């Protein structure tokens, strides 16, 4: 196997791993916003890595250029779509999840100091 | 080499089937849409892998581009459609 084939196989495998992480995150995380966090970033990285590996496998052709165009499009479009969905959910009034039951943040506190330290260990 | 791609494609079908649980069981409509979007994004990769397996990536890459654009447009349209609907059961009461 040539170095290009090894590199493409490694990239495709890494991308499949990130897609698996995104799938598990969509199922296992506790609420909509954390699930959109999983699918918005992990899936995008997985698709980009996998298609980059396939582009390496193809060599320099027209299909290679189209694959790179798809990579650029996915890198732009997938987070935008996820963000639009999360924005629609927030405007609809979907409450975020807090550890230990629903506790909306105290409106008398300043927003910046409120929940900066929460949710790090989830 | 192609056998490895076939194995990854088979694994990818299993990976694609996982968010289907969220589409069926999601407590809110946004969870269902998120699962559907995740399935669409991963299908992109599966189409490209099938193209490599059949050695016709020059044809399958065009299908991939069309699929990516349609997925994105559908996502935005449905997000616009469901925004600002407070009282029609769009948001369920339960967080799983």
Q: If you had to describe this structure to a student in words, what would you say it looks like?
A:
The complex is a heterodimer of chains A (122) and B (96). By secondary structure, chain A is mainly α. Chain A has one domain. Chain A contains 4 helices and no strands. The longest helix of chain A is centred in the middle third of the chain and has 31 residues, at 62-92. The radius of gyration of chain A is 19 Å and the shape is elongated. With 96 residues, chain B is mainly alpha-helical. Chain B has one domain (2-82). In chain B, 77% of the residues lie in helices and 0% in strands. Chain B has 4 helices and no strands. Chain B has helices at residues 2-17, 20-25, 29-54, 57-82. In chain B, helix 1 (2-17) runs antiparallel to helix 3 and helix 3 packs antiparallel against helix 4. The model of chain B has no long low-confidence stretch (mean pLDDT 85). The interface between A and B is large, with 56 and 51 residues.
Write the layout of secondary structure elements.
The complex is a heterodimer of chains A (122) and B (96).
Chain A: H1 3-28, H2 32-58, H3 62-92, H4 111-114
Helix pairs in contact in A: 1-2, 2-3
Chain B: H1 2-17, H2 20-25, H3 29-54, H4 57-82
Helix pairs in contact in B: 1-3, 3-4
Keywords:
heterodimer, A: 122 residues, mainly alpha, 4 helices, B: mainly alpha, 77% helix, flat
Q: From the helix content, strand content and strand pairing of chain A, which structural class follows? A: mainly alpha
Distance between the termini of chain B: 42 Å
* Average pLDDT taken over every residue of chain A: 84
How many distinct folded domains of chain A? Answer: 1
The Cα radius of gyration of chain B reads 17 Å
Task: Specify the number of helices of chain B.
Answer: 4
Estimated structural class of chain B: mainly alpha
Q: Which runs of chain A of at least 5 residues are low in confidence (pLDDT < 50)? A: none
Provide the succession of SSEs of chain B.
Answer: HHHH
β-sheet strand percentage of chain A: under 5%
Mean pLDDT of chain B: 85
Number of strands of chain A: 0
- Helix amount of chain B: over 70%
CA-to-CA gap between the ends of chain A? 42 Å
Detail the poorly predicted runs of chain B.
Answer: none
């Amino acid at each position: 196997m040539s170095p290009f084939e090894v590199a493409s196989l490694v990239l495709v495998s890494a991308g499949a791993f990130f897609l698996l992480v995104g799938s598990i995150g969509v199922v296992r995380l506790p609420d909509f916003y954390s699930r959109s966090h999983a699918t918005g970033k992990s899936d995008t990285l997985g698709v980009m890595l996998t298609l980059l590996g396939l582009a390496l496998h193809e060599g320099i052709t027209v299909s290679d250029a189209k694959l790179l165009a798809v990579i650029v499009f996915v890198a732009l479009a997938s987070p935008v779509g996820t963000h639009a969905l999360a924005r629609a959910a927030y405007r609809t009034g979907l409450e975020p999840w807090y550890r230990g039951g629903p506790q909306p943040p105290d409106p008398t506190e300043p927003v910046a100091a409120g929940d900066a330290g929460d949710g790090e260990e989830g | 080499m192609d056998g490895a791609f076939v194995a990854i494609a088979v694994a990818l079908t299993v990976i694609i089937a996982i968010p289907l649980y969220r589409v069926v069981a999601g407590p809110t409509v946004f969870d269902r849409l998120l699962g559907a979007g995740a399935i669409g994004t991963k299908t992109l990769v599966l189409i490209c892998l099938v193209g490599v397996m059949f050695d016709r990536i020059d044809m399958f890459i065009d299908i991939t581009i069309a699929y990516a654009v349609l997925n994105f447009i559908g996502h935005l349209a449905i997000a616009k459609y469901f925004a600002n609907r407070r009282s029609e059961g769009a948001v369920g009461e339960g967080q799983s």
